[in-house]
Amino acid sequence: MKLRRLRFLVPTVYIVFVLVPIYWLLNMSFKNTNEILGSFTLFPRQFTLENYRKIFTDPTWYGGYLNSLKYVLLNTVTSVTVALPAAYAFSRHRFLGDKHLFFWLLTNRMAPPAVFALPFFQLYSAIGLFDTPFAVALAHCLFNIPLAVWILEGFMSGVPKELDETAFVDGYGFWRFFLRIFIPTIAAGVGVAAFFCFMFSWVELLLAKTLTAVEAKPIAATMTRTASTSGYELGLLAAAGSLTIVPGAFVIYFVRNYIAKGFALGRV
Amino acid sequence: MDTKIPNQKAWFLVLPVVLLVAFNAIVPLMTVVNYSVQETFGDNVFFFEGVKWFTEVLRSPRFHNALGRQLLFTGIVLVIQIPLGVAIALAMPRKGPWVSVNLVLMAMPLLIPWNVVGAMWNLLALPDIGLFGRAFNAMGFDYNYTRHPVDAWVTMVAMDVWHWTSLVVLLAYAGLSAIPDAYYQAAKIDGASGFAVLRHIQLPKLRRVLTIAVLLRFMDSFMIYTEPVVLTGGGPGNATTLLSIDLVKVALGQFDLGPAAAMSLVYFLIILLLSWIYYTVMTKDEATS
Amino acid sequence: MARIRLTNLRHTYSPAPRSEADWALKKLDLEWADGSANALLGPSGCGKTTLLNIISGLIRPTEGTVRFGEDDVTGKPPDARNIAQVFQFPVVYDTMTVHDNLAFPLRNRHVPPAEVEARVREIAAMLDLGPTLGQRASGLTADGKQKISLGRGLVRSDVNAILFDEPLTVIDPHLKWRLRSKLKELHQKLKNTMIYVTHDQTEALTFADQVVVMNEGMVVQSGTPVELFDRPRHTFVGHFIGSPGMNVLPATVEGGVARFLGHPVPTATQPKALPAGARLELGVRPEFVRLAPDGIPVRLTKVSDTGRLRIVEARHGDVPLKLLVGEDERLPVDTAHVRFEPSRTQLYADGWIVT
To answer: For residues C104 and C139, is the Cβ–Cβ distance under 8 A?
Structure first.
């Protein structure tokens, strides 16, 4: 009987392990650099909001967040939008080369970003999109679109074909049916796909850094620049890092009820 | 659900996806293939060199070392994360008020930008002012990940475990939630022990999910770049220079287009090959069972 | 083998029930004889699965006691009650062979191997699973797997009761009757106490000696299939059992005689003391509504031919009613007169029979 109760220690210990680095980062973000370098304290002796103030007022900093958000949102919207009709086609129709196409899409998920770094740099420079959020948004499509198609196809296969047939018999044109009836039916799937696209685009940084320079620089680049040039403005770095966790926490909170369902498809 | 309507017009629905992905995949790949078989001495003049770069890469000790380190890393990480993730998922409550709290907290590491993950651990493991670094040194270890290769590896592995185990946990948890209660009830009635339930009900039902988890973790750990770069920069020396890191050094650092391109293709092919083998083996097993 | 007794049983799923509606099972007392074949019949949500799970020990009742023979098992978990349960969908251990599946409950109880072998072969023969013993359980069809589930329950010789929770749900329709006959055959051979939960009246009425009809958490009537058919104690029972169900017609009582929209209708028993303001109804099965030269005038609206019989739908005023007419009987075209057979006509007040 006692062993049963001990079971709950396992996830608890793990969650503590997960939270400690996050706590440490937050801890450092509320200290100034002198305190960080000078002493070792588990809680800021001199609690300061200076780091955060700097980030919210300095355009190089908050601009970084805005840039990141720009391309993430662009990418999420694009990926999900084009994935929806494609997933429908895979789910409902058989067409020439469909199986091979699906498989080819999935292989792109296996592409190491490092392989594409240089080619993307040349490609997007050549078409004049270098250093814009569009470049990153488009580049991330490489692996986000296959992901979105895969997830949406899974949800769509769970909707009986009778729904489509009934609508067509009732006189709905394809697009009207698709937009007014079908998509609302798989709303949870759209949410899950959007969540994963957001997640993978928000966290990916090699391509984001490679394809930007000054204008569209994401927060990651600003952070690394800080670390190397001004030699360890640790408090600022910590505050910047802490702020990057916020959008993620926000998004998870909203989809918390769908997390289990989304992972249940096993299609991450 | 197996009756799909044959309809060639469906291609129009798929076209935007194909265009966007192909644009990003085919054009760069063509470039890479192009570079991999050519040599340049500058001024945009190229000479066809055949398989010279490939043989050079495949023979180079530098590549072998990076590949070796990569295989070691992926191996260690899989061996830790898969059982750990499953164990945690098995121990998590499936009903009740703590379920969503657990899930949300566990999902957090997955949504942190990878450079922040690296930075976090970089700061955490600093021997003098980082929480873990100081703790280790206080315990008597001579710990410094910027100087000792073993310490760097330990830190890198710990960071990856912290970062990605949650993925395995969430996948396994979802798989476990899909097992209908009736199975547990029947096992209770049959007098089965907890271990028997694990062996005969839970693990078999988790098989598909575990296949996907292993495949994903294998692929992602094989491609890892940002986190180790921010953590150790590939050092000390090149102790933690994994394949991606080495590739980027050669491509963007040295601008050795030919070797970089050849290495890229070999890299991509290795992943594809290993993934395909794993996938075939696992699904063939499923088909015969 | 045991006599099962439920006393003062009541169950709610909510931690703080406020009204009757919060109780999944309203107060009930039930008794099942040792070795009897019983059914729990009712529509979805009536509480029959809750009741079954209380008997098997998967749920602990909020109030009341469960007794097997002389033992109070209310607090005991399922494996201590010696019951077997067959679920809606087959529960088999995929990784094991059919043989090992059947042997599993015995091996868990440390039964000696020789005895395990004998028992497994015996049960496998009874269930026609003999030839499949060496196969992997996951390879069998749905009805095969349900037989394995059943077999795991039968293989233990000390089983107190076997509980079935809508076991034919996933079986193909043309195989259902085969499995049903097999269950009946097994009951006659083994004489275990069996309780069969279903919403299908055919399954219940053909399998059980004693049927308990439930609705909205209450036991509405408990009796043999014949009793339920002939004398439904509640309009719900009359309606639910029989195809088509009993006619339920609005009634009044004047001067000790029941009347249907003014027409006097003789009933099986004389209506005695009636609760004031109660809703009165007459119940008579279509089988016992006959065409007659005089009686209650009706307008015929529809005739359905089912082969040996015809179901005729008619109306008296605004009230619809049905009657069954043999295939050879002459049927008037528009209007007709009908009479109800008195011994099969009952009066109901607020749904309950007036005796």
So the answer is: no
Distances (CA, A) of B119 to A113, A117, B112, B236: 20, 22, 11, 16
Domain range for residue C333? 245-353
Side chain identity at residue B83, one-letter code: P
Q: Which two tokens stand for residue A78?
A: 């694009």
C-alpha A123/C-alpha A18 separation (Å) is 39
Report the candidate in B261, B120, C346, B12 with the shortest Cα–Cα distance to residue A18: B120
Q: How many CB atoms lie within 10 A of CB B55?
A: 11
Report the 10 Å Cβ neighbour count for C307. 6
Domains of chain A: total: 2
First to last CA, chain A: 37
Nearest C-alpha in C relative to B287: C139
User: Which chain A residue has the Cα nearest residue B244?
Assistant: A114
Angle between helices B257-288 and B10-36 (to 10 degrees): 130
Strand C37-41 and strand C83-86: pairing? unpaired
Residue B31 identity (one-letter amino acid): T
Looking up tokens 């129709």 gives A93
Nearest CA-CA distance, residue B242 and chain A, Å: 11
B289 in contact with C, Cβ within 8 Å? yes
CATH number listed for the domain at residues B64-255: 1.10.3720.10
**C residues 1-60 closer than 8 Å to B (CB):** 56, 58
Cβ-based neighbours of B165, under 8 Å, separated by 6 or more: A14, B80, B81, B84, B85, B88
Which chain B residue's Cα is nearest to A227?
Answer: B119
Answer yes or no: do C131 and C58 share one domain: yes
Q: Which residues pair with C312 in a beta bridge?
A: C303, C323
Do C273 and C160 belong together in one domain?
Answer: no
Contacts for C124-130: CB closer than 8 Å, 24+ residues apart: C124/C98, C124/C99, C124/C151, C126/C154, C126/C186, C126/C189, C127/C151, C127/C154, C127/C182, C127/C186, C128/C182, C129/C98, C129/C102
Q: Do B189 and C85 touch (CB under 8 A)?
A: yes
Q: What is the pLDDT along chain C (355 residues), one digit of tens a residue?
A: 578 888 888 888 888 888 888 888 888 899 998 888 999 999 888 888 889 989 988 888 888 899 888 888 888 888 788 888 888 888 888 888 999 999 998 888 888 999 899 989 988 888 888 888 888 888 888 888 888 988 888 888 778 888 999 988 888 888 888 888 888 888 888 888 899 999 988 889 888 999 999 988 889 899 999 988 888 889 889 888 888 888 888 888 887 788 888 788 888 877 777 777 788 888 889 888 888 888 888 888 888 888 888 888 888 888 888 888 888 888 888 888 888 888 888 888 888 888 7
Task: Tell me which residue of C86, C204, C191, C95 sits closest to C139, measured CA to CA.
Answer: C95
* CATH number of the CATH domain containing C341: 2.40.50.140
Q: In what order do the strands lie in the sheet with C296-305?
A: C289-292, C335-340, C296-305, C309-316, C319-326
**Which residues of chain B have a CB within 8 Å of the CB of A223?**
115-116, 119
